[in-house]
Amino acid sequence: MSGSYYVPATSKWPALGSLALGMMMIGTGMMLVHGRGTIIMLLGLAGVVAVMALWFRDVIVESRSGLYDAQMDRSFRWGMGWFIFSEVMFFAAFFGALFYVRMFAIPWLGGEGTKGPTALLWPEFTAHWPLLSPPDASISGPAQVFSPWHLPLVNTLILISSSITLTVAHEALKEGHRKICRNWLAGTVLLGLCFIVIQGVEYYEAYAHYGITLEAGIYGATFFILTGFHGVHVILGTLILIVMLARIIRRHFSPEEHFGFEAACWYWHFVDVVWVGLFLFVYVF
C-alpha cells in the first residue's frame, strides 16, 4: 500500500542472541584465563549460529512476502552501514594496539623517549621488531616469523581476486543475468574456502615449526589476535555468501531489489580491505 510503513512484530531473537553471545564470550574468557570452559563456549557459539539462522529466515520470509518498502530498505542500509562502522572501530583497536607496542612500548623498554628509564627493568634488552627475544627471559619468543611472500601473499591475491569475482556477480545481478551471477558468486565462495584452508595451514606451521603461539610474547599475541579475528570474519563472510548463492539458485532477488546480496558484498569487501592492512603491517613491515 502506498505510504504504508512496515513495523516488524515483537521479536525474541535480539534477547536470545545477546544471551548466546554472552555465553560464548564467558566460555572464551574461561578458556583463555583458566584453561577450561570449552563446552560453554561451544554452546554459546551454537546458540549464536542458531539465532542468526532463524532470525535471517524470518527476515527473508518477510521480504519475500512483500512487506518491506523503500523506508525499510533505507533502514537496512543505515543498519548495515553502522554495523560495518563498528567493525572498523573493532579492528582499529587491534591495529592501534600493534602500533602502540611497536612505536612506543618496545622503544621505551630499549631506552628511547621520555620513558626511556623503563630500560632499567631489562638493561640487556635490545628493541627491535619483530620481537623474537622478549625482555623477560621467562617468556620464549617465536623461533622465526613468516615470510610475507609465500602463504600470506597467496592469501592476499586470493582475497583481492574474490573481491573482483564478487563485483562481477553483483553487476550481473543488477543486469538481470542470474546464471552469470551464480557462477561468479560460486567462484567467490570457492576463493573464500581456499583462504580459510591456507590460513589453517599457516596456523599449523606457526605452532609446529615457527614457535609462533599465543604464549610467544607480544608478537605471538598480536599475530593471533589480528589474524584470528580476521579469520573468523572470513568464515562468517563465506557462510553469508553461501546463503546468498543458495538464494540466487532459488531465484530470490531481482535487479531492483537485492539489498541482502548487496549487504553481503559490503561485508566481504570490508573483510578484504582489512586483510590488506594485516598483510602490510603484520607480515611485511
TrEMBL record:
Keywords, alphabetical: Membrane, Translocase, Transmembrane, Transmembrane helix
EC number(s) given by UniProt: 7.1.1.9
UniProt keyword Transmembrane helix present: yes
GO molecular-function terms, A-Z: cytochrome-c oxidase activity
Any one GO CC term of the record: plasma membrane
Subcellular location: Cell membrane; Membrane
Keyword match Transmembrane helix: yes
Entries under Pfam families matching the protein: COX3
InterPro entries per UniProt: Cyt_c/ubiquinol_Oxase_su3, Cyt_c_oxase_su3_dom, Cyt_c_oxidase-like_su3, Cyt_c_oxidase_su3-like_sf, Cyt_c_oxidase_su3_a-hlx
PROSITE patterns in the record: COX3
Gene3D superfamilies in UniProt: 1.10.287.70, Cytochrome c oxidase, subunit III, four-helix bundle
GO biological process: aerobic electron transport chain
Residues passing through the membrane, by range: 12-33, 39-57, 78-101, 149-169, 181-201, 221-245, 266-284
Record domain Heme-copper oxidase subunit III family profile: where: 1-285
Membrane-topology descriptor: Multi-pass membrane protein
Sequence similarity: Belongs to the cytochrome c oxidase subunit 3 family.
PANTHER family tied to this protein: CYTOCHROME C OXIDASE SUBUNIT 3, CYTOCHROME C OXIDASE SUBUNIT III
Name of the protein in question: cytochrome-c oxidase
Protein's organism: Billgrantia montanilacus
